[in-house]
Amino acid sequence: MSDVDSLPEFSEDEEVAEITEGVSDDGKKKKKEKVKIDPPLMNRPTTPDDFERYEPSPFQLVLACKDLPNGDGFRSLSDPRAILYMKDQPTGKWFEVGRTERIKDNLNPEWATRIDVDFFDHEEDDCRVEVYDWNKNYTDLKKHTFLGMWKGPFSALCKGGDFFNKELQMMNKDGTGFNKKKSPSTIRMGALPVSGVKVIFQMQFEAVGIDKASRSGKTDAYMEMAISTENEGEYVTFHRTEVIKKTTDPKWERFQLTANQLSAELADRHLKITVNHWSKKGPKEIGSCTTSFGELRSRKEAGEDIEFVLINEEKANGKKKDKYTNSGVVKLVSLKKKNARVKKAASTRAAPPVEEAPEVAPEGPCGGAQTLEIPELMDNAEEAPEETCEPEEAAEEAEVEAED
């Protein structure tokens, strides 16, 4: 994460069924399926009738950690997942706001999931972030290994707040000391205001001939997408695919991004695509390339086959650089745009009195009107019909057995 005005806003809507619809090998159309979402650990308490609650300000929380404890011992690395809790003022009870995805075998996670928060700035704003080594087989939180915690006011994580985008020391479960004896883990957070017109993009990528990364001669491949910030050479991850095991020609499932319309100066931010090999000892980069959504759009309109050569900088500058050409090719299989459904605002909430109305939240690094704008693609997004840049190819069903 970086400066406030440096990051566009993305989110992944896991509940939209269209991303799993396709054509099976026998030519039959698959049924739409919704991605399973874990139930909250603690629901928000019911607001008492005698407590007047005003309209909230929507935010998204971005999280990253460094040097987490290894909860798996010598077998592998921790599979970290973060959970955001907030304290409800009228009831005094803690509840779960949301959680990130689980990242396998990584002690320095940068979560792609942004946690949606309804922030009531007229109320107390105690919050805490807990990080666990997550075991997918358990639903009881007590069976997951606690890795660290941060606790403080949510307002301090918002733009301009004292703790926004700063490395903060993580504490133990009781908050009485650091989460590690020698040196504590650190966590970086940013709460980003959300606004603007939402547009959905459905994309699919594949790679061909990527480098072999294991003794078996195959690669457990996954892809990450990151957007450049205003700091030279810095990128922030906003999407991570599933792992396709034992292959040098992975084709990842279609995924969906919801983007808020943003200012034109961010339209040509660099987009970094990285293909990695997953292992229990941590990720290993196969190669990367850079482009932009503007370039993807223009090349699609021109009817080009969009593919990029993957370059591994370590190999390109290593001892065998004279023999090195590339680490494979990544291809954009499909790109589709559609409008997001707009939820009607609840009419029962009271409007705040004029003299106490909060100021409009400034645009944050990922939030506000700061999402990638594809030139000519997001103009008049509310009236624009669904646009397909390319007929969707038959989706190949990849069954990936995740290892713990």
Automatic annotation (TrEMBL):
CDD domains: C2A_Copine, C2B_Copine
Record's compositionally biased regions (Low complexity): 350-363
One Pfam family it belongs to: C2
Species whose genome carries this gene: Oikopleura dioica (Tunicate)
Name of the protein described by the UniProt record: Oidioi.mRNA.OKI2018_I69.PAR.g8930.t1.cds
InterPro entries the record matches: C2_dom, C2_domain_sf, C2B_Copine, Copine
Domain C2: 57-166, 199-305
Stretches for region Disordered: 1-50, 343-404
Compositional bias (Acidic residues): 379-404
Superkingdom in the source lineage: Eukaryota
Ranges in coiled-coil conformation: none
SUPFAM superfamilies tied to this protein: C2 domain (Calcium/lipid-binding domain, CaLB) (SSF49562)
Residue intervals passing through the bilayer: none
